[in-house]
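Quick review question:
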């Protein structure tokens, strides 16, 4: 039985491709790629002759059987357009299917846009929350951001050049004028890192036409900023969480992050209302 390898590929600079990644791609019997034309350029650069098949959002269900059949014959590699596969792409469903069929799944680590942007942001890296792309519509975008507005974690989002300014405006409206690092076109010729407050980022990217891929790293809410829920609001949240079947420990940990209440206080209230 073969191994499904998740091979990270460069997010811009081809020199970031690891020697092990190149070797695995050469030795596999098949490479499943999000975009065969894009990945074909990478394979040509490294003189990799392994057969290529497409695996993306709109054909993933049709391709699962083919890829699993190939895994029964030998090793298969999964690559995305850029960075680490199965993050923000349908690769995780292939991982699930491979594991369910008792195949081994192994990573070949390498570039990752969220981690690269976080590392150079200058913001806390000890705890963070990665949310991928924000919704396209402003109302939905604000709703998502509002749900995490009280968390202390550093927040990471991806965004397109067409929505970057509108997303920054929504972030400012919901989260306030927090510290932010906007990473653009990382590792490419015109890479840029803008650091400052959200309001300044809006003005900066309004002043010229935004181009390229964006990763936003936003400061979490500080202890000084965090609001404490009223007891009535906390009790409603506890009753809602109790219906999910979660343990008192799980509920108290989750609600402590959101409410500003102490874990022990919430734990006691949970047990009182069981």
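Suggested answer, residue by residue:
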């Amino acid at each position: 039985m073969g191994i499904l390898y998740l091979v990270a590929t460069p997010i811009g600079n081809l020199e970031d491709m690891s020697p092990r990644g190149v070797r695995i791609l050469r030795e596999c019997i098949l490479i499943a790629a999000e975009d065969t034309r894009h990945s074909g350029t990478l394979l040509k650069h490294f003189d990799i002759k392994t057969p290529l098949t497409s695996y993306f959002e709109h054909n993933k269900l049709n391709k699962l059987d083919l890829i699993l059949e190939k895994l029964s014959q030998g090793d298969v590699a999964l690559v995305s357009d850029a960075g680490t596969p199965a993050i923000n792409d349908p690769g995780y469903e292939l991982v699930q299917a491979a594991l369910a069929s008792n195949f081994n799944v192994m990573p070949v680590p390498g570039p990752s846009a969220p981690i690269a942007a976080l590392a150079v942001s200058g913001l806390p890296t000890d705890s963070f929350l990665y949310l991928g792309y924000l919704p396209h519509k402003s109302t939905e975008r604000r709703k998502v951001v509002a749900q995490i507005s009280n968390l202390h974690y550093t927040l990471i989002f991806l965004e397109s050049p067409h929505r970057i300014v509108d997303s920054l405006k929504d972030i400012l409206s919901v989260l306030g004028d927090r510290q932010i690092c906007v990473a653009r076109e990382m590792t490419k010729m015109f890479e840029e890192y803008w650091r400052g407050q959200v309001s300044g980022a809006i003005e900066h990217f309004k002043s010229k036409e935004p181009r390229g891929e964006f990763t936003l790293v936003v400061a979490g809410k500080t202890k000084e900023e965090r609001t404490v829920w009223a007891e009535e609001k906390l009790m409603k949240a506890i009753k809602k969480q109790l219906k999910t079947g979660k343990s008192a420990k799980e509920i108290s940990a989750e609600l402590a992050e959101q409410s500003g209440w102490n874990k022990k206080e919430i734990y006691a209230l949970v047990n009182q209302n069981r």
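Why it works: The chain has three domains: 3-111, 114-218, 231-272. Residues 7 and 108 are 5 Å apart (CA to CA).
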